[in-house]
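Sample pair:
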Amino acid sequence: MRKLSIKEMNRLSVEEYKESCKTPLVVVLDHVRSLYNVGSVFRTADAFRLQGVCLCGITARPPHTEIHKTALGAEDSVSWKYFERTEDCVDWLRRQGYTVLAIEQCEGSTMLGDYMPTRREGTDGTEKVAIVLGNEVKGVQQQVVDMCDGCLEIPQYGTKHSMNVSVTAGIVIWELSRKLSK
């Protein structure tokens, strides 16, 4: 086997990316401290051609050197919006027709593998989904969880109760992208 060169991968330019059809999925970062986590989420959002990323509260915004170190330019291709309050972001997304789901361990959470987006009649197909990822220590704020349409949980079988924000984002984006593109 031979690894493909960058040219052979035939990637989109930033301009082509911006004009391309997007997966109806938005990632909301609720007070995420690590700029490397922010950059990684941008890079994963680019890889799956997500609708965008919302940065809330203390979450850093581009341009920033540490974000760029992991985003590798995805902060230029992926649409993003900043909100001082995550609650305002959730309100805005709901007005845009998104189902908003916290990625959190809650009473009544739906396991990620069990979640199925609904089909909407009179639209181009699948629902639009926004996922809220929380702070590295405190998770998604309770008042934000209370505003969401539900919670998705990643099953975990070890001794730890959580995973890194960027790892969680990658798992959830992969699973929801597969389901939203069917």
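The mean pLDDT is 95.
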